[in-house]
Structure formats: structure tokens, C-alpha cells
Amino acid sequence: MPILNADLQTMSVFADIYATTGANSIVYGSLLSGDVSTVGANASITGNLVSVGAATIGAGKASVGGYLTSGGLATIGAGASVGSDILSSGAATIGANAYVGGNVTTNGVATTGDTSVVAGHVVAGGAASIGANAIVDKYVGAVGVISVAASAIVPLKMTLSLSPAIPNLTAVINERVVADAAQIETTQRMLNNLGGGLKLAPTMVTNTTLMSGVYSAASLSTTAGTTLTLDGQNKPNQLWVFNIANILVTGASTKVDMINAGPGSAVIWNTGGYASLGASSEFIGTVLAQDYISVGANALVSGSDAFCGQLLSRSYVSAGASAVIGSAGCVSKGVIDISKDGKPSYVPTTSAVPEPSTYAMLLAGTCLLSLRKRRAKNIWLTEKKEV
Fold first, then answer.
1. Can you tell me the distance from the alpha carbon of 301 to that of 303, in angstroms, rounded to the nearest whole number?
2. Cα(5)–Cα(199) distance, rounded to whole angstroms?
3. Predicted local confidence at residue 365, as pLDDT
4. For residues 100 and 120, is the Cβ–Cβ distance under 8 A?
5. What is the pLDDT of residue 164?
6. What DSSP state is assigned to residue 367?
7. Are 276 and 290 in contact (CB under 8 A)?
8. CA-CA distance, 342 to 191, in Å (whole number)?
9. N or C: which end of the chain has fewer CB within 10 A?
10. Taking the domains of the chain in order of start, what are their residue ranges?
11. Distance between CA 173 and CA 228 in Å, rounded?
């Protein structure tokens, strides 16, 4: 069976509790958080952002390339952007000069700041406030009072009789998080069942080269500036599995490098404690941690030919300023399979793997489709003839 389910196979960051990315950091891919999620100033998530709790996008050029779904408040900082829809159970606040490439749907109050742009509609279960010089491309609908600045551009305003958002959105996202967390726990047990393989010293103090195989340590750390080279010997499907019983710590400027590895090669780090990757370090592979994962400032977590760099934690994930997780344009091409003989193997993906937060997007689509049907039947939508 594949060691990761469809949600987790292509996810860059999973945090069972909360996720934080520092200023100017980049996550190439999608992020799912079991509580609050925070994207720092000028930081970016190139995929989707889904959070059981509040989701906050910092100011400046901070961005989410896909959609944002929050079981709590959704806050987009001044000058920030979201490439697609925003769906939230709580209030949705769009800062000044911010941009939303799709619709904004919230069960609470909706606020768009001065000179902001929403390329779709704004629909709120509470009041709606549109700031000076702001633009809403389609319409604004709200259960509460609609306030539109004189200089704002809003083609149509509508009064709603029912809240538009999904009542149990928070619970639905949480259900997915619980399932993914359970899958990580199962995966860690499967990896541990591979055995100890070659035992490593607790501290790596000199540059080291390792061939494909299973490795283990009670805890594993590297001194600053150390290089660990993973040599694939010019063969395809080379796999490195590191079973760390307790903690994994890499020193500042440590480098983990893969060379001579053919198609289908991958690296998996399985730790029963936490993983801490030092500042300015270069790391490769998928990290599964029972506890938290922290990535230092200016660190890089990249993937291999088969997989993007991933951080999957049963606790929280924290990435420092200017850290980078994944690689631009990286798409996972397969899954790791634990075969009947108990050895890990690589299996290419033969069909498209759904995005890690597809369930949230489907929910958003269902919600908006319901809105359109109700509007067509005039059951709950009363048009105010205002422009």
C-alpha cells in the first residue's frame, strides 16, 4: 500500500496543530493546518492554503497562489494577494491594495480595504463594507448592512436572507486533518517496521556519503557545515529511509545532497520526535515527524526526481525568514509503496493525483452552486436596485 494517501502525496506542508511561515519565505505547493496558519510579510504559498482555524496572510507581496479556505477568520494583509476563491467560516478582511482573483464567501463580516480588488463577488453572512476606490467585479451580497464607499466600483448590491457559507466547514476541514494525521502515524509505523538497517552514529561530524538503503539512529544530528551525500550510483529508483527514534537536528549550513540518482529516487526522514533544520542549511526529502518541524532562516528543503520536498508533522511546522520549501514547478510523480516482502519501492503515478485540499474546493463549489440555484428561484435573494 502507498505510504501516503492522496491528500498527502502532493502536499508540501501538513501541520496537525498550526503552521507558520516567516517573512519572505516560499512554500512551493499547498499547505494544510489543523489550527491557525500564518504566512509572513512578502512570503508566498504557491498552491492552496487550508486551515481549520484562522488564516492570516501578511502584508507586502505576500501571496497564496491558489484558493484559501479557513474554518475561522480569513485576513489578507495590505498589498497581499490570493489567486482564487476565499471561503471562511469567520469574518473575511481584505487589506488595502490587496487582490483576490476569485470570489469572497464568508459566514461573517466581509471587509475590503481601500483600492483593493476582488475579481469575483463578495458574499457575507454579516455586514459587508467596501472601501474607497475598491473594486468588486461582480456583486456584493450580504445578510447585514452593505456599505460601499462613494469612490468604490460595485456593479450590484444584494440583500440576502440566509448566510451563504457552509455551516460545518470547520468540522469538515478538521475531519480531513484528523484522517491525514492518522495516515502519517500509520506511515511512520510502516517505516519503523522496515527495521534498523545500518545504524548511524548519533552525531555526524565529518562529511559522509551513503548509498541507497535503510538507516537508523536513536537521535541524529550534524555539526555545522557538514555535507551528507546520498549517492544513487547512476541507478533508478534509489531510496533512502532514515528511521530516527527521537530527534533529527541539522546544524547551520549543513548540506544534504543527492548525486547520481536516476528517475524514481527519493529520501524519507522518519522521526519519532521533532526535526530541526538549521539556518542556511540545504536539505532534501520528505520529513515525517511525531513532534514539530522547524526550518531555520534561509534554509532550503527540496525534493528529488520523484517527490517534492515535504514537511509533514503531527504537531506544528515553523519556517523561518526567507526559508524555501520545495522547488518551483515541482510535481510529485509517484508514491512509495511497502510491498509484500516489506521493502519500500517506488511506484509511478499513472493518473492525476488530486490537490491536497480538493475537498475544500469542492465544498466551496457546492456552496456557490447552491447560492446560484437559490438566486435563480428567488427563494432567499432580494435584489436592491442600486448600482
1. 7
2. 29
3. 41
4. yes
5. 83
6. H
7. no
8. 9
9. C
10. 13-169+358-384, 175-348
11. 38
Q: 3-state DSSP call for residue 332?
A: coil
Find the length of the chain. Answer: 387
Contacts of 243 (CB under 8 A, 6+ apart): 191, 192, 194, 196, 197, 214, 215, 216, 217, 270
Q: State which amino acid sits at residue 222.
A: T
Cα 192 to its chain centre, rounded Å, is 26
- Model-level pTM? 0.87
The pLDDT value recorded for residue 362 is: 37
Q: Which amino acid appears at position 247 of this protein?
A: I
Separation of alpha carbons 377 and 166, rounded Å = 20
Q: What angle do CA 124, 129, 134 make, to 5 degrees?
A: 115
Measure the CA–CA gap between 365 and 354, rounded to whole angstroms.
16
CA distance 101 to 152: 18
Q: Transcribe 109-132 into DSSP letters.
A: -EEE-TT-EESS-EEESS-EEE-T
CB 35 within 8 A of CB 20: no
Q: Are 355 and 30 in contact (CB under 8 A)?
A: yes
Phi, psi of 71 (to 5 degrees): -80, 0
Bridge partners for 328 per DSSP: none
Residue 213, all three cell numbers:
538503503
Helices (H), the chain: 6-9, 169-192, 358-377
Beta bridge partners of 13: 31, 311
Q: What pLDDT, on the 0 to 100 scale, is given for residue 368?
A: 39
Check if the beta carbon of residue 73 is closer than 8 Å to that of residue 91. Answer: yes
HSE value, Cβ hemisphere, 13 Å, CA-based, for 75: 15
Enumerate residues 6+ apart whose C-beta is below 8 A from 17: 33, 34, 35, 313, 315, 316
Distance CA 45, CA 63 (A): 6
**Gap between the Cα atoms of 139 and 93, Å rounded:** 17
Provide the sign of the torsion angle of the four alpha carbons 359, 318, 44, 117, taken in this order. positive
Q: Which amino acid is at 138?
A: K
φ/ψ of residue 235, rounded to 5: -115, 150
Grid cell in block for residue 25: 519565505
Asked if 273 contacts 295 with a C-beta cutoff of 8 angstroms, the reply is no
